[in-house]
Amino acid sequence: MNRLLTKIQVRGTHDPHIRVAWIPGWGGTAHGLLPVLENCDWGTHCLLNPPELSQLQSEHELTIGELADFVHSTLNEPWHIVGISMGGIIAQCLALYHAKKVLSLHLCCTNTGGYQNPYGVNPAVQKIWFSKATDLEDPVLKILSPCFSLEAQKNGLLNKYAEHIRATPIQPSGRLLKLQWQAMTKFGSQDLVKNLQMPLHLYYGLMDQVVGYHDYSRLRGLLPLATTQEFNGGHMFFLESAPSFLKVLRQRILSGLQ
Prior knowledge:
Distance between the termini: 47 Å
Number of domains: 1
CATH superfamily: Alpha/Beta hydrolase fold, catalytic domain
Helix content: 25-40%
CATH architecture: 3-Layer(aba) Sandwich
Oligomer: single chain
């Protein structure tokens, strides 16, 4: 039976000592993150996959804490952690309970989770995601479209990325997607993030339709010591503005090493 690899590693020619681990968002995989690093020439990057159902404690329930524990067990040394969307929620939990594995925390297009936060994901986007695709709709584009800015949809980046996702060797199962979503809606870090001690950095796409600016501002208010950087782009700004994002990410990491 084909299985998801636990992780994919990408190594640049410069600064290989900078170790960056990437946690993808809901439904995301390590393969889906590869286009972000297509032209990255620095660092050692570990792109993480979600666990398989066989690796979970129960096939009926999943928690953000269990997902964070899985990341903790996958990483054998401290890394700079980049958490994307739901991956940012997992990253917060990892930093709270496994702080020794986190050299610095980089949160992209994320929030505190769905607990006591009904607008953690834009309800209009949820409606699109969870409605059945018609015979005339491409299911991949239906899911991805709200994640990209109109400019990225018009210039072909959305279609190019959709082709990449279609070529992904193995996709997370529908059961895992359901468990991930339920875990995200039950988790809330708003009363805990004040305890984070490592360098903190927030990144946001100003045209994000999935996580609204209000929710980003709420997280920013809970982390007053965090640096912030906003980009022109949607929920996938880190792909839409990959060169700029990677440049800022590297600068943030190096500033903490001085």
